[in-house]
Design goal:
Number of strands of chain B: 10
CATH class of chain B: Alpha Beta
Low-confidence stretches of chain B: none
Structural class of chain B: alpha/beta
Number of helices of chain B: 7
Shape of chain A: elongated
Helix content of chain A: 40-55%
Strand content of chain A: 15-25%
Oligomer: heterodimer
Mean pLDDT of chain B: 86
Number of domains of chain A: 2
CATH architecture of chain B: 3-Layer(aba) Sandwich
């Protein structure tokens, strides 16, 4: 017959389903919210850091510097406008600039951006070919791994581009793009792009027979790597009288995460408050148990139970609640992450669904269980001072 | 520890199973000093501790069970010197050597009847031997509540609860059984039935019935009467 203290504690919790459910729900939501925030922060920070890799400056049209970064580094916002290719190449030749990768875009296929660029863009993110080859001629496309998977693209497939970054109404049916290669997953922004030569972007918007003046060619942005740290100070001055600007990804991302930080701090405070309420609930639950079950506890003493046995039993009840609530919280955060990742995937094509347990989550779980045990240990001390004679006389 | 207790139990057989001599008790510093009559029981004896309300029956019962500690006198039960033993020794001794039938049947409400019956073994030995389960089955059968073994305490009638309470007090084969007012709320017929059960099931133990019920006086000639001036 199973009658261990664990079993007794479990049965005692089951005997009060509403109280147990309330404590579990409070702790589950508290831990779940904090865990979800930790997961989201980790995923967002990882994605930002991965894609910012060695990009010191972004050259683009004047406007919001943050928008320039979000649009051209992360591809989650509309660009600030176009800039002249010749003018951009002049900046590239500045002695403080080491190298640059041009980007030109404005069309999409099924919501995935078609980006005109050079092979150095693929090399920059360390992406490799899974099949086929990199683009060589206009209208040839090498698809990122996630685009290919989600749209079911294979080498040899063809499609039309649509004007805009998401819209599917204005389709350029006169120009056919052909998939010539598929990239391996790289964990970077490249995974969600359709890459093609710059010429594809220019030609797709030209009438048949129209010739584009090389002096008037436009690009959307250029990702720059500096040779000299002074570039950060010098280059903006050289652009003062142009329609161009340079933005620093590290600074803009930092500014953005600080702004997010205000919101996440408020959310974290709410989550902590819910957790504190859950610990109070466990405290009250154990205290109430001692009051309501004092005759049972006294009876157990007459049957050979020591004060230590009763203390361990009450502690186990609080411990089981804490462990179950923490596990529930971690499960809830995974459910939340799955929902969130579907939204992010649909909106920005980013994959943020990481289900592994973070180091910080282990710490959170440990702290939640420890505080839960403390919340039950304090009232459980009353069982050590239980007066059996008086309690049984009251019955 | 077990062999230590067994040695003491054997010694008690050689002497008295219950020995009360010059026992005095006082609740706190201000409470009245209670003096109890001397008496003793041999192994297998049946005895009545009779007294009206306020004569200190419950206090004496709690002293005999080691729930209270006497300030003076000799108090030996089932080989245990209750004034000398530590709290831990008394806890363990109480679970193994004593069986207590309370006036109101108390149970752990979250456990089934058979789990409640097995609880003393779990608490004192950390496990429930299979022979105890066999003994429990036949005992519940004899008491007519075998079909209620899986029920929760609140699902039983008062009479069934009382029989289950008797089974729990006797299942671990205690040397001494204390019964606190076992017939106080029963009519003559049911009172006799309960006492028949107690006598039968506790045949091998020393039985001490603490009561104000005068009807039991004829049943147990060995009777100690507590008087108000003692309390």
């Amino acid at each position: 017959m199973k009658l261990s203290l664990h079993y007794q504690a479990w049965r005692n919790l089951r005997a009060k389903p509403l109280q147990t459910a309330l404590s579990l729900a409070l702790l589950g939501f508290g831990v779940g919210m904090v865990s979800l925030m930790l997961l989201t922060e980790k995923q967002v920070n990882d994605a930002f850091e991965r894609n910012i890799k060695d990009i010191d400056l972004v050259l683009g049209a004047k406007g919001s510097p943050l928008q320039l970064i979000l649009a051209n580094v992360y591809h989650i916002d509309a660009p600030t406008g176009n800039i002249n290719q010749r003018a951009a190449e002049k900046v590239l030749k500045h002695p403080y600039i080491d190298s640059g990768i041009p980007l030109a875009y404005g069309d999409n296929h099924e919501g995935y951006r078609i980006v005109g660029t050079e092979h150095s863009y693929v090399a920059h993110y360390g992406a490799t070919l899974a099949e086929g080859q990199l683009w060589a001629a206009p209208y040839e496309v090498t698809a990122g791994a996630r685009v290919a998977e989600n749209l079911g693209l294979h080498v040899g497939d063809t499609f039309f581009s649509a004007h805009g970054l998401k819209d599917q109404t204005d389709i350029h049916t006169n120009k056919t793009f052909t998939v010539v290669g598929i990239l391996e997953p790289s964990g970077s922004v490249v995974d969600q792009l359709l890459l093609t030569p710059m010429e594809s972007i220019w030609y797709v918007h030209m009438e048949d027979g129209e010739v584009l003046d090389p002096e008037k060619r436009e690009i959307t942005a250029m990702l720059l790597k500096k040779r000299n740290p002074l570039a950060v100070l010098t280059i903006p001055n050289t652009l003062r009288d142009t329609n161009m600007q340079v933005a620093l990804p590290a600074i803009e991302v930092n500014r953005m995460t600080q702004q997010f930080g205000l919101g996440t701090s408020a959310l974290r405070a709410i989550a902590m408050l819910i957790m504190a309420l859950s610990f109070a609930s466990i405290f009250i639950s154990v205290l109430d148990n001692i009051r309501a079950r004092r005759h049972e506890l006294a009876l157990m003493r007459t049957m050979g139970g020591t004060p230590g046995t009763l203390y361990r039993l009450l502690l186990l009840e609080g411990g089981l609640l804490s462990v179950a609530g923490t596990v529930l919280g971690l499960v809830l955060s995974r459910v939340g992450m799955t929902v969130l990742s579907q939204v992010v995937e649909a909106q920005f094509h980013y994959d943020v669904a990481a289900m592994g347990i973070l180091g910080s989550e282990w710490a959170l779980a440990g702290a939640a269980i420890l505080v839960g045990l403390l919340a039950s240990a304090i009232p459980a001390r009353r069982s050590l001072r239980l007066d059996i004679s008086r309690t049984l006389s009251e019955a | 520890m077990r062999s230590y207790i067994q040695a003491h139990v054997w010694a008690a057989y050689l002497r008295n199973m219950v020995q009360v001599q010059g026992v005095q008790f006082q609740y706190g510093e201000e409470g009245p000093r209670m003096t109890f009559p001397d008496f003793s029981c041999q192994p297998g004896d049946r005895m009545l501790l009779l007294g009206q309300s306020g004569t200190g029956k419950t206090t004496l019962l709690h002293l005999l069970c080691g729930m209270l500690k006497a300030q003076a006198g000799i108090l030996n039960v089932a080989g245990q010197d209750l004034r000398a033993a530590s709290d831990r020794e008394i806890d363990n001794w109480r679970g193994q050597a004593l069986g207590v039938v309370f006036q109101r049947a108390h149970f752990v409400q979250s456990l089934t009847i058979q789990e409640n019956l097995a609880l003393p073994h779990q608490l004192t030995q950390g496990r429930v031997p299979s022979e105890v389960l066999d003994r429990m089955g036949s005992m519940l059968d004899r008491l007519g509540i075998a079909h209620r073994a899986e029920a929760r305490p609140h699902e039983l009638s008062v009479g069934e609860q009382q029989r289950a309470s008797i089974a729990r007090a006797l299942l671990h084969k205690p040397q001494v059984v204390f019964a606190d007012e076992p017939t106080s709320a029963l009519d003559d017929h049911n009172a006799a039935a309960v006492m028949d059960i107690l006598d039968r099931e506790a045949a091998e133990a020393t039985l001490v019935v603490v009561t104000h019920d005068q009807r039991l006086k004829d049943r147990y000639p060995h009777c100690v009467t507590l008087s108000p001036n003692q309390a």
